[in-house]
Design brief:
Layout: H1 2-29, H2 37-51, H3 53-58, H4 67-71, H5 74-108, H6 121-149
Length: 167
């Protein structure tokens, strides 16, 4: 699911580029700016970012400072990664729990921006934050299980190369 959602969410950025281009043309060539483009781009970009969190986590592509990590021996690296997974899981679970009630409130009364376009952007983004936290926690749990299963396996550099088939 993380793979699919990450690749699907990437298409939302393309839609944002199209909307932004349309807004620029309307504003600067026709002197007729839209009332909806900015809010639509904000919702689409934020949604894409939230929906891709599982993909980024699955592929371990988060921004990180790895100076100490790469200098550590393999078992210490394993422990550091375990620590990071557990801390991330607890932190994201707390975020999802904290975001739940405001999201439900925003959706039940359909919170709006109050702008000229008056979109339901706050309700959508608050709900997306909860969805993102659930997706992130799910992928962190998968990563944690895989990490724990790898405890007895030799580190990647120490694994023997595949032997050629016997003829």
């Amino acid at each position: 699911m993380s793979q699919f959602l990450g690749l699907a969410a990437a298409q939302l950025y393309l839609l944002c580029a199209v909307i932004t281009t349309y807004e620029v043309v309307m504003r600067y060539l026709f002197n007729s700016p839209t009332q909806w483009a900015f809010e639509m781009v904000m919702v689409l970009c934020a949604s894409a970012w939230v929906l891709s969190v599982g993909y980024v986590t699955r592929h371990k592509r988060h921004i990180g400072i790895t100076v100490l990590y790469v200098m550590a021996p393999p078992r210490v690296q394993w422990l550091l990664e375990l620590f990071a997974l557990v801390v991330a899981l607890v932190a994201v679970a707390i975020l999802g729990y904290a975001a739940w009630e405001p999201a439900v409130r925003a959706l039940t009364r359909l919170e709006r921006t109050g702008s000229a376009f008056n979109s339901p952007q706050p309700a959508i983004l608050k709900a997306m934050l909860v969805i993102g936290a659930v997706l992130y926690c799910a992928q962190l749990i998968v990563n944690l299980i895989r990490h724990l299963q790898a405890w007895g396996a030799p580190p990647p550099a120490a694994r023997p190369a595949a032997e050629p088939p016997v003829e």
